[in-house]
Fold this sequence. Notes:
alpha+beta, eight-stranded mixed β-sheet, four-stranded mixed β-sheet, 7 helices
Amino acid sequence: MTGGNRQKRPLHNCCNYSIMNKNTLIKHIVERLSAAEIDYPEKIGASKEAGRDKRQIEAGVLIPLLFETNRSANSNEPVFILSKRSTAVSQSGDLSGPGGELKPFLDHFLRSLIVHGFPPLLGGAALIHARERGKAAFDSIALFLANAVRESWEEIRLNPFNIRFLGPLPPYRLRLLAKTIFPMVGLIEKKWEFNSSREVEKLVEIPLEAFYNKENYSFFSIRLQDNMTDGTACGWKSPCLIFENTTGEVETLWGATFNIIMSFLDIVFDFTPPDIHPEKIITKTLNTDYLTGNDRRRPKFLDKFRQDR
Length: 309
């Protein structure tokens, strides 16, 4: 939910971000995110209630936004910096923001440091707006921000001093896993040197304008390997974004990260994605280790997946 009945802009409208300078756009993002309904305390409570029968995972995720200079236009271009997951971890090949499971003791300790200004990533208007939500909501935001920032350092060596918190996004419940994601939008002050790690193959930059090109949208369909099923398609598809970078490499953004960014665009820019032709479909075959990484055991999500068809 986005906290208001705002009129949607059509896709062909390039949106006001294109005529804003960097500082004005950042201010706009902070103000819009501060008005979003997030319900963090309620979602955490619901997760614990549902977890009586099975373990529920809560995870903070950073949605990194960098303003990159467009030399040809002499302007700043908002770019999402996403991680392409390596074959050593679950969901290999997918694009996501850095993040991972909450570690209560460590993340509560880091939360206290962040709240007291070390590092100074939670400050200014974003801090004021977060406190205005009330103590329970503020504590939850600060906790999952600490979680996301810790994971960002561990996965892609993004220095906490290089991040400025812009605001939270509504939680996202994963369909195939007992997991709730609490996304945090962070401004990356400057580019940093990244070397591939065990968890991340490379970083992928997707400019904001890519989401305003209707030709970039398609449906994404999942197929299971023959040794995981009878060889038939799963009968499930969802929207995705296909993006080709300047070197000709094509990346697919789908699933949780796609939906989280769509939530960001809706809240901040009143964005409505385009209608997709029903025959425009790309298919991905899931390997047996898609949700287990190097653990080669048969994924337990298959029965759940078939039930959701």
